[in-house]
Amino acid sequence: MLLSITILGFIVTFLLLINLRQSNKVNIYLFFFLFINNIYSLSHYATVYSGNKYLIAVMLVHFAPLYLLLGPLFYFYVRGLFKDDYKLSKLDLLHFIPAIIILINAVPFIFQGADYKLAYSQSILQDPLNILKIKNLFLSPVFTFMLRPVFALGYVIATIILIYRNELHETYTSKQSKLIYKWLTLLIVMSVLLYLGFLVFTLFVYNKMDYYNSYDQGVFMLYCTIAGLILLNISLFFFPNILYGLPQLDFAIVTKQNREVEQKLGIAEDIKKQGKGFEISPEKLSLLKLKVETYVEKMPYLSLQFNLTVMSADTDIPVHHLSYFFNEYMNINFNTWKNDLKIDYVIKKINDGSSEILTLDALAKQAGFGSRSSFINAFKLKTGQTPSEYLQNLD
Q: I want to staple 112 with a disulfide (CB 3.0 to 4.6 A). Which of 19, 45, 116, 263 is the partner?
C-alpha cells in the first residue's frame, strides 16, 4: 500500500512540474516539497517493508539531508503565495544550513563501500532498530531521526503564524483567495498528520526499543502518517486552480507607459498609487483586458511560435497572471483564445476574397497554424463547420 501511495505521489509531482511553465513559479517549492515527502516515504518502505537490501542501501542515508528541506520549502511556498514572488533573498539561504549539517554528519556512511552498506542493510532486515547503529560524524542517529519531523513541524507552525498575520481568511474575499485559504488549511492539516504521526510513532519505537512491538501499539499514528501522505498526493486533483497562486494585478501595469490608457479608463492618481493586492478589482481587470486587446491589435498570434510565454515576454505580464485571467475571467483557455483569433483572421481573408487567390492551406499557414489538421479542428470548433463546408455555404 505504502509503495502504491508513493508511486502515485511521484506521478502527481511530475504532473505539477509539467504545468509549472504556465503556473505561478512559486509552485517549484510545492513540487520539491511533495517530491521529497515521497522520497521520505520510499525510504521508509525500503527500510521496513521491501525486504531488499539493495534498496535499503540506496535509500537509507543518502537522501537524509533532503528531509531537512521539507520545512523551509513549505514555508517558502506559502510565503511566495502571499508575495506573488518565488525569489529568495540571501538571508533565506540560512534555512538550508541544517540540511548541510546533516549532509556533513552523514559523510562517514556516504563514502563507505558497497560491501559495507549491503552488510549494514542486511542487519536492518533482521532488526529495523539496527538503523540506530549507523556511523555518523558527530550527531547521533536518534537525534537526526527525531530532528526530521520536529524541524518540519516547527516550520508548519511558522507558516500558520504567517497565514494569520496576512489575515487571508478575513481581508480577502475573492474567489481565488478563498480557494487558496481552503487549500492552505488542508495543506497544514495534511502536514501535521504526516509529521506529528511520524514523530509520535518514532517516540513509541525509541521508548520500547522494539520495532515490532511498537508497531502494534503505535499503528494508529502510523495510519495518521499514511493518511496525511495520501491526502498530500491526491489534493492537487481537487484544487487545480491553486497553481495560479494569488495573482497580484498591479494598477500600474500599463499606466507608466501609456498615458492615453489611464485617461480612457479614468484612473485617478490615488488609485494608481495603491500597492498590489489580492482583490482583483474591476479597475485591475480593465487594465489587464485593455493591455491584452492593445497587444492583439498587432496580430502576434499569426506567428507559429506564438504562445503564452511569448505573450508574457511581450507584455510584461507574468505567465500565471495571464493564465488566471484567461481561465477565470475570460472563461476560455489560452489555446482556444489564440486559435479563435487565427480563425477570425482566416474568415476575414475568405470574406475579402483571398480564398480565390490562395488555397486554404496557404491561408492556414498565414494564420500561423502548424498543420492542416490543427487548422481544420480549430475552424470546426469555432464555426461548427469545416473550412470546405464554410466555403460551400458562401456560394
A: 116
Q: Give the pLDDT mean for 43-63.
A: 88
Long-range Cβ contact pairs of 160-166 (< 8 A, separation 24 or more): 160/188, 162/75, 162/78, 162/79, 162/82, 163/78, 163/188, 166/82
Closest residue by Cα to residue 263 from 292, 279, 286, 296: 286
Asked whether 134 and 145 are in contact (CB, 8 A), the reply is: no
Q: 371 Cβ partners below 8 Å, 6+ apart?
A: none
> Would you mind telling me the total number of residues written for the chain in this entry?
395
CB proximity list for 10: less than 8 A, separation 6 or greater: 35, 38
Instruction: Output the furthest CA–CA distance in the chain (Å, rounded).
Output: 88
- To the nearest 10°, the Cα dihedral for 252, 258, 264, 267? 30
Q: Whole-model pTM?
A: 0.80
Architecture of domain 281-394: Orthogonal Bundle (1.10)
Task: Find the angle CA(204)-CA(209)-CA(210) to the nearest 5 degrees.
Answer: 90
Domain boundaries, the chain: 2-244, 281-394
- Identify the CA nearest to 132 among candidates 214, 228, 224: 214
* Beta-carbon count within 10 A of 323 CB: 23
Q: Identify the three-state secondary structure at position 302.
A: helix
H or E, element range at 362: helix 360-366
Q: How confident is the model at residue 101 (pLDDT cuts 50, 70, 90)?
A: very high
Would you place residue 104 in the very low, low, confident or very high pLDDT band (cuts 50, 70, 90)? Answer: very high
The separation between CA 249 and the C-alpha centre of its own chain, rounded to angstroms, equals 20
Q: What cell does 216 get?
A: 502494534
* pLDDT of 134 strictly over 60: yes
Looking at residue 23, the DSSP 8-state letter turns out to be S
Cα separation values, 330 from 222, 324, 379, Å: 45, 9, 20
What whole-number percentage of the chain has pLDDT above 90?
36
∠ Cα 44 48 54 (to 5°): 85
Cell 491553486 belongs to which residue?
242
Nearest to 346 by CA among 368, 326, 314, 313: 368
Closest CA relative to residue 151, chosen from 34, 226, 72, 231: 72
Backbone angles phi, psi at 218, to 5 degrees: -105, 20
